[in-house]
Specification:
The protein has four helices and no strands. The protein is mainly alpha-helical. Helices cover 59% and strands 0% of the residues. The chain has helices at 13-25, 30-44, 60-74, 82-96.
Length: 98
């Protein structure tokens, strides 16, 4: 096995997390992707490829932003008692029977 060296660089924390989430969705991790990229750069002697997720895949930060937005929208919704919640469920089930 060839001698290995440590490669380090600085990157924006949010960018790193978004990219790590994408790699995870693709079934891999950042170090593996970086090694793949470096090997391909050597083979093609340039930037080697483009890999993209489908547009409907959401990153962690996008999901958190959406959650915070929904939380803000729900802030004006009054609290319901357990009986009110159960009545909503009964009513919804009754509507589905017809």
């Amino acid at each position: 096995m060839a001698e290995q060296v440590l490669v380090q660089f600085r990157v924006d924390k949010d960018l790193k997390q978004d990219v790590a989430d994408i790699c995870d969705a693709l079934g891999t991790d950042l170090p593996t992707v970086f090694r793949m990229c470096m090997k391909q750069i050597k083979i093609v002697r340039g930037i080697p490829f483009s890999t993209r997720l489908p547009e409907n895949v959401v990153t962690r930060s996008e999901a958190l932003d959406a959650f915070e937005e929904m939380r803000g929208q729900a802030a004006d919704v009054p609290e319901m008692s357990m009986e009110e919640i159960n009545e909503e469920i009964r009513s919804s089930r009754a509507e589905r029977k017809f």
